Fold:
Amino acid sequence: MTLTLWGRASSVNVQKVLWALDELGAPYNRHDAGGKYGRTDTAEFAAMNPNRRVPVLQDGNFCLWESQAILRYLARRHTGLYPADPEGRARADQWMAYCDTTLQPPFITLFWQYVRLPQTQRDPAATDAARSNLGAALAVLDGHLRHHDWLTGAEFGIADIPAGSLMHRIHALDLMPAGLAGVERWAAVLAERPAYQAHVATSFDELRGN
Ligand SMILES: N[C@@H](CCC(=O)N[C@@H](CS)C(=O)NCC(=O)O)C(=O)O
Structure:
């Protein structure tokens, strides 16, 4: 059955799912929702996701929200991307949790400060703290990627998607600290993947606050 994805293509969390769908070769339809497209404040949307956020994936009568849960569901449904052995799977879960809890939050703060908020509402103190936290989080990633091609296993996999989906905007906003050779190598290889080029390396102009 064809899957339905709800969410604007400018959302990094939607981009993660689009990237995975293409890597898995899964057919889908996407409907814009969130941001300037609205829809998330309707009763129909709340029935799919009471948290009123995107992405939401519909598979027949089954609705799923939270991008990382969706990634895991897709990888299990289609086979691929998720390591089969318990240790490999746990390692993938580890890096995905790290992205959600440690890497993405300071990035989101910076994205709001530099892109989404009008200049009059920006807060230099918030920016300084987030830059420091983002640099520390990227340094941990770099410690691994200096010695490994991917975040898990010998091939590209599910764990590369959440963190990898931030790389385009980190570079575009000049947020990448100098000297992270492992992250830079990995990000350059990710940027060659057609699904990354189609869904991640895209304009975020529609999100600019001024
Ligand atoms: N933890 C959630 C976060 C979802 C989220 O915050 N989505 C944002 C877009 S990146 C959203 O829906 N924002 C409100 C909107 O676009 O209207 C996930 O990973 O799916």
About this structure: The domain at 86-200 is CATH 1.20.1050.10 (Glutathione S-transferase Yfyf (Class Pi); Chain A, domain 2). The chain has a mean pLDDT of 97. The two ends are 41 Å apart (CA to CA). The chain has two domains: 3-78, 86-200.
